[in-house]
Amino acid sequence: MSTRAFVLYSRKGATAPIFSLNDLPGSGGRMDLVARCVTQALWLSHDLRENVAFYAVLNGPPDPPKTIGFFSDSIKRLSLDERNVGSWIKKALEKWEREGRKAQERGEEWVKVQDGIYIARKDVVPLVKELKEMCNFKLFVLHEKGEDIREVEDFGDNCCFILGDHIGMPKKVEDYVINKLGAEKISVGPLPYLASSCIAVVHNEIDRRSASG
After folding, report:
1. % residues pLDDT > 70 (the chain)
2. How far apart are CA 85 and CA 68, in angstroms?
3. Quick one: which H or E segment has residue 162?
4. Of residues 166 and 2, more confidently modeled
5. Predicted confidence (pLDDT) per residue in 42-80, tens digit
6. SS3 (DSSP) at 86
7. Cis ω on the peptide bond leading into residue 62 (within 30° of 0)?
8. Which in 28, 55, 108, 118 has the greatest CB count within 10 A?
9. What is the Rg, in whole angstroms, of the alpha carbon atoms belonging to the chain?
10. Which domains does the chain have, with CATH numbers?
């Protein structure tokens, strides 16, 4: 069971295996950004983290939405480089094209791609609602105008952190998650950072608190 989760809303991330691994930023709809966030969420310097889940919510063309989940405790054959992560995202989308409809007809939301990687036709609000209600995660939205992360007391494991890509989350999604699902808006610093860097800062803050507590 994951005790720390990250949800990335990707506005342009491709939702079919139509992109080239040689052009993740262009044909993939900034899939390079998604891949970097996966590595920051799941890896330490020489090992995988324990009990971390990362969800990439893809809303680009041609068939949105798709969510791909990566789970550190069971994942295999996934390495740190963007191309490798991108290849598994592409395999996940290929798997959905082959098996997604049949899985839905059987009442199954998630299709297994390999150990630790799953894909579903699920958008960000239903996903976050599920993480709150079924997994009892406390929700945080990463936002430049949020409360400073170092001032947040109820913060640590069993938390889910929601963030946007280089474009950001749609305001209606952000408002719903905050006003309807009770997420807190927090900031990782005084300047805007890359999405992958935001994940690294969140990990660092929790790690420091855990080490000192």
Report:
1. 99
2. 12
3. strand 159-164
4. 166
5. 999 888 999 999 999 999 999 999 999 999 999 988 888
6. helix
7. yes
8. 28
9. 16
10. 4-212 (3.40.1280.10)
